[in-house]
Specification:
By secondary structure, the protein is α/β, with parallel strands linked by helices. The protein has two domains: about 210 residues, 3-Layer(aba) Sandwich (Rossmann fold), CATH 3.40.50.300; about 90 residues, Alpha-Beta Plaits.
Length: about 300
């Protein structure tokens, strides 16, 4: 359904998306995960034909997003980041306007609109002014807009952004329901979201694709190791190197530094509790240690580790 090859986007002097390649098969729900500024929206804007790539290609349902942009766009229901809606329209008017813009005519408009209103549970607010809607309902209207021409592919850019936990939960249920009939690419920076609904996770960081796994593979990756969290103070410049030399340590990362305290994450082989060895070394080196904590790894660690490995 989506095939992306070496897609890049450079803004003046800056690379926002750098040679990414991936594909999404029909029927999949794929999460597009990455921290702020990673390049998610830029990639999505290229896929939906809103901005041209600097290089590389993308195909939607076999159609090139540039040479066959109309055919490609017809296959996509796009819900942009911070759904732009017309505040001075009623929900029904807005969806009618959007349906016409997307080329729907006659009875089809009414039929599709009713189905979209039903699916997104916004029938009761169809006569309300958009300006009077709560954030959650605005998101639903944005989704109804994306759905109105019944596209096989939905591309949703941070659809749960700004929703409260119960709204997020019901939005998630809705997306699961939509997955029965649509292929879905959903961008988010919330890991738990992809874990709960996605078949596969693409991880993007600083414009580069650094992961393409099932949630299960990601947690398996982490199961092979455990983390020790350490808070340490010392003028010694070799803490990281010295801890790295302890047998069984896989990786040491400096997370942050505050008032002279260094917060470090130490990856060790699964279940290998090296706290004693670290404390022993600490007392030899005169390090001040105020916390050392042995932690089983979670999926989140896999993600954070992948995203941080470049910058540390
Ligand atoms: N129009 C633009 N002009 C210049 N730089 C831009 C433009 N749009 C985005 N960028 C830069 O490109 C990079 C990627 O931005 P993008 O919006 O794609 O990130 P994102 O992953 O969607 O982040 P977020 O989670 O905050 O939405 C950022 O460094 C951003 O500052
Ligand atoms: Mg974005």
């Amino acid at each position: 359904m989506i095939k992306v090859s070496n897609l890049s986007k450079k803004y003046v002097g800056k690379s926002a998306v750098d040679q990414i390649s991936f594909s999404v098969d029909q029927g999949e729900i794929v999460g597009f995960l990455g921290p702020n500024g990673a390049g998610k929206t830029t990639t999505i804007r290229m896929l939906t034909g809103y901005i041209p790539p600097t290089s590389g290609t993308a195909k939607i349902g076999g159609h090139d997003i540039f040479s066959e942009s109309l055919l490609a766009k017809q296959k996509i229901g796009y819900m942009p980041e911070n759904v732009p809606l017309y505040d001075d329209m009623r929900v029904r008017e807005y969806l009618l306007f959007r349906a016409e813009l997307k080329g729907l005519r006659g009875q089809e408009i009414k039929k599709n609109m009713n189905e979209a209103l039903e699916l997104c549970s916004i029938k009761t607010i169809k006569s309300q002014m958009i300006s009077s809607l709560s954030k959650g309902f605005r998101q639903r209207v944005g989704l109804a807009d994306a759905l109105i021409n019944k596209p096989p592919l939905l591309i949703l850019d941070e659809p749960t952004n700004g929703l409260d936990p119960s709204q997020i939960r019901s939005f998630r249920e809705l997306i699961k329901e939509l997955a029965e009939k649509h292929t879905i690419l959903i961008s988010t920076h919330i890991l738990s979201e992809v874990e709960l609904i996605c078949d596969r996770v693409l991880i993007i960081n600083e414009g580069k694709l650094i992961g393409n796994n099932t949630p299960h593979e990601l947690s398996e990756k982490m199961r092979s190791s455990t983390t020790i969290n350490l808070e340490i103070k010392s003028h010694d410049n070799n803490i990281k190197e010295d801890i790295s030399k302890i047998s069984g340590v896989k990786k040491v990362t400096l997370e942050k530094e505050e008032n002279g305290w260094k917060f470090m994450r130490i990856r060790v082989d699964y279940g290998n509790d090296l706290r004693e060895e670290i404390m022993h070394l600490g007392s030899k080196r005169d390090w001040l240690i105020r916390e050392i904590h042995f932690q089983r790894s979670k999926l989140e660690d896999a993600y954070i580790e992948m995203v941080q490995s470049k910058s540390n």
